[in-house]
Amino acid sequence: MTTTDEVERPRPGERLLDLVAVMDRLRSPGGCPWDAEQTHESLAPYAVEEAHELADAIASGDREHLVEELGDVLLQVAFHARVGQEHATEPFDVDDVADAIITKLQRRHPHVFADAVVSGAADVEAGWEAIKALEKPDRTGLLDGIPASLPALALAAKTASRLERTGRGELLAAAAAPQPDDVGAALLALVLDARGRGIDAEQALRGTVLRLAATADGDA
Questions:
Q1: Whole-angstrom distance, CA of residue 9 vs CA of residue 20
Q2: Cα dist. 194→112, 147, 154, 171, 210 in Å?
Q3: What is the rounded CA–CA span in Å between residue 47 and residue 170?
Q4: How many angstroms separate the most distant Cα atoms in the chain?
Q5: CA-CA distances (angstroms) from residue 118 to 15, 58, 122, 175?
Q6: Nearest to 187 by CA among 162, 165, 154, 164
Q7: C-alpha dihedral over 116, 120, 123, 129, to 10 degrees?
Q8: Which region, left, alpha or beta, applies to residue 181 given φ > 0 means left and ψ of -120 to 50 means alpha?
Q9: Which fold would CATH assign to domain 11-88?
Q10: What is the dihedral of CA 143, 146, 151, 155, to 10 degrees?
């Protein structure tokens, strides 16, 4: 027997089409002047900000807040896709964006969508990196593909991970060797120590600072 809730509840993904329609309305003539003026470049800072707000929502454990912030991140995707439609020579739309990520996910999960066999999560991760290397053979620099704008501790951890995967861990040891007054080397050593213990140094420091702020506010 079908209940009223089952009948009225939209199909999975149906509201995404409504979001695309809302974004089109906002961007089209007669819509919102502010939305109509935005470009990929002007929107870029909002994407960064929303990603950080999403991370805060996850850390808070507040499910309602998490849904809200996920919506804000989704808006950035829909907004950029709508802006992309208007490019004079190389337009793209939300379906192109979706097609690109679907194709990538299928290609990088051959154990799900093809006949590859894996023994666990470690095999999946190794396979993912191997496939990515084949997709992007022109990447030669150490930081190619790693956003240089990442917070420094996160950038150090990502770089360390890449060096370890490519068998160049000795470079890490040399860079993190104690040097007089070399604060950078000392910080890198702390990042490597945290990685060795399965700790995200960026999140650890963030948590300590937030606890400090909460204590200071409580004492005020």
A1: 19
A2: 33, 21, 12, 17, 19
A3: 36
A4: 75
A5: 35, 30, 9, 35
A6: 154
A7: 100
A8: left
A9: Helix Hairpins (1.10.287)
A10: -50
Region at 105 (left for phi over 0; alpha for psi -120 to 50; beta for the rest)? alpha
pLDDT tens for the 220 residues of the chain, in order: 455 555 677 788 999 999 999 999 999 999 999 999 999 999 999 999 999 999 889 988 999 999 999 999 999 999 999 999 999 999 999 999 999 999 999 999 999 999 989 899 988 988 887 888 788 777 667 778 888 888 899 999 999 988 888 788 888 889 988 888 899 999 999 999 999 999 999 989 988 988 898 888 877 6
One-letter amino acid of 91: P
Residue with structure tokens 């995967």?
Answer: 165
CA-derived radius of gyration, the chain: 22
Is the pTM of the predicted complex or chain greater than 0.70?
A: yes
Q: First vs last Cα of the chain: how many Å apart?
A: 59
**Rounded Cα distance, 181 and 197, in Å:** 26
**107-112: which pairs have CB atoms within 8 A and are 24 or more residues apart?**
107/131, 107/135, 108/132
Domain ranges of the chain: 11-88, 93-137, 145-219
How many Å apart are CA 78 and CA 70, to the nearest integer?
12
Sign of CA dihedral 73, 78, 83, 87: positive
Residue 177 is given by DSSP the state S
